[in-house]
Amino acid sequence: MSPKNTLKQEKYSETDNSAHIYITEEFMSKRISAITREQARKQIRPTSDVFARYLLSSPKCTHLTKAFINAVLEDAGETPVTDVKIMSPFNLKECIYDKESIMDVKVSDENGTTYDVEIQTAASDSFWNRMTYYNNRVFNSQLKESDQYDRLSPAVVIALLYDHIYGSTGKFRFNEKMHHYSLVVHKDNHDELFYPLGDPEKYHILELDRFDIRENALYTVNGTEQRKLAPSLFRWLRFFKNGSREDFMKRYGETDTEIAEAKAKYEKFLTDDQLRDAQLRHEMWLHDRAQDKADARKEGLAEGRTAGRIEGRAEERTRIARSLLRAGISVSAVASSTGLTEEEIKSL
Q1: Are strands 155-161 and 201-207 parallel, antiparallel or unpaired?
Q2: Which residue has the higher pLDDT, 307 or 13?
Q3: pLDDT reported for residue 155
């Protein structure tokens, strides 16, 4: 069958899945090929999931992954790592049809601590449970059958959120604390650690919409105390926030070599047809999935309303039939009046 015939068949048939795939592929290819580099720059940000995976989960760029993790640890006053290993290396084909809109990179350091680095453009109500579940799974997966518990090492989540999640129901306040990190202490003594050897599971949450582009900006912590971000974390967050600007390096006088390399990889991503197309295809695919879910929900609601009306009418006929029977009306007359069968009426 020729492409032309396939298209014609798809126009009249919803059951030919192969034709549907053909049409979708052609449509996506046309849309993507028409996008210029500058249009792609507006659509693809440093936080876009395929690019972020390309940046942070490439085995050839572990020094960038380590630099970002250490920036987060430095800001939290924790010991930096000296070496990292990518546990979920970048796979271009998998990225396109990944059902998640969450960038997820797993890394381990020289001590066996596992880091789950995530970037989310939107945080849903399920964020807390999902984050906890993922970290639990990472922690538990370290043990094989018959392994001893002393083989377990800490598991750490670093989640960069495009929108804030703390105080999300209240009024947004700029310059509120944007780096939140966990520490389990005794409820009746906050100066004493609950886990004497350190928390087995840790969490760092970074809220990018609270980020202030001014290097000396102060963030309110503990109600009244204020502090700046660690310089290294500030530089990384500035890149994730505004790194899509073509003049980023010059505008901000950025001299950090690792940020410069991250920026160069971003520019390469925009000009590499395969990489850029992967990001745009992934976004289109996610939009299509979201639309399919919305359409299915509308259809389900419509079917539910129809079923409800039918069920309501049936209940009303039953109620009327009972009233007529109590009034002494014959079964045949009740059947004629309500549309119920005589068998249905006799069973009332």
Answers
A1: parallel
A2: 307
A3: 94
Determine contact, residues 175/207, Cβ cutoff 8 Å: no
Angle made by CA atoms 121, 122, 124, in degrees to the nearest 5: 155
Query: Is residue 278 a part of any domain in this protein?
Result: no
Q: Coil, helix or strand for 143? A: coil
Rounded alpha-carbon distances, angstroms, from residue 68 to 9, 121, 187, 222, 305: 51, 18, 32, 25, 51
Which pLDDT score is estimated for 135? Answer: 92
What is the pLDDT, as a whole number, of residue 249? 97
Q: How far is CA 194 from the centre of its chain?
A: 31
Q: Tally the domains of the chain.
A: 1
Q: Which two tokens stand for residue 53?
A: 């995976």
Mean pLDDT of 193-199: 92
d(CA 80, CA 109): 10
Coil, strand, or helix at residue 228? Answer: coil
Q: What is the mean pLDDT of the chain?
A: 80
Enter the tokens of residue 121.
């453009």
CA 335, CA 50: separation in Å to the nearest integer?
A: 65
- Tell me if 298 is assigned to some domain: no
Tell me if 200 sits within 8 A of 155, measured CB to CB: yes
Distance CA 301, CA 311 (A): 15
What tokens appear for 335 in the block?
A: 């059947």
Residue of higher predicted confidence among 124 and 244: 244
State pTM to two decimals.
0.72
Is the pLDDT at 317 greater than 90? The verdict is no
Which structure tokens are listed for 325? 């029977």
Give the residue numbers spanning the domain of 265. Answer: 35-271
* Whether the Cβ atoms of residue 152 and residue 142 lie closer than 8 Å to each other: yes
- DSSP β-bridge partners for residue 157: 116, 203
Residue 320 lies in a domain: no
